[in-house]
Design goal:
Strand order of the largest sheet: 1-2
Strand content: under 5%
Oligomer: single chain
Number of helices: 6
Structural class: mainly alpha
Number of strands: 2
Length: about 280
Amino acid sequence: MEMAAAIGDEIKNYILQIENENKELKHALDENTKQRKELEAENQRLEERLRLALFRQFGRASERFIGKGQQPLFGNEEIPDGKAEPPEPAGIPVKAHIRNAKGRKPIDPKIPRREIPIDIPEEDKQCACGHPLVCIGEDITERLVIIPEQVYVEQYHVKKYACHHCEGSGDVRPKVCDKPAVRTGKVPETIMPGSIATAGLLSFIFVKKYDDHVPYYRQEAGFERIGVNISRQDMSNWQMKTGNRLEPLIEKLKAHVKSGSVMQMDETPMMRIFGSSDA
């Protein structure tokens, strides 16, 4: 009897073990099915993006439908009786255009000119017959000249004035003069007090940075070639300080833009093709 009871317990334990394994396998199967559905959905999204990208790259850009028998847009348009479609024109007139001339293009006339006269020697202005030669015209040849950046230092010599007679005692007396004993000239204000940077230097650096896309480390090397020592750290600090000084102007621009009845902007969303926020 004891042996039969032991065998019965072993069978029960075996059955419980098989049931647990069955539950685990069923759970794993459900997880695999869920992952397979997610992968299929992701694959479908990627195929749609690929199809859209190929259509944008190689598809027809124009959405105009050209052809006969085009159906009505809303389905309820009616053509009045007795009015047939106008016949198609035999040809399309093309507006005349001016073809560009071949050869080198002339230099922009707005660029200032520096005239350099070229004459023949005085001894060649006498004809062999004994009469002097007369100028009958001239040929003009143009060559473009560019002067590199001109660098110079604005050196302010601030004059100081004082009275040697009273040594300033006449200025400090009340109700006589409210001016200081030593009077100095006033240096023009600058956008960045206490710095060597001027408005022209800052404009040059920022145009190079944001219009010509020249980073600060390359500008630093360019300044070294012309004998000027300006580090990239200085230029970066000047950029932040200039931005802080221009905050009132930015607020004025924002207020001016918002003062109108309509504000136009481009709010077209960008699709994440590569699945990253940096794409």
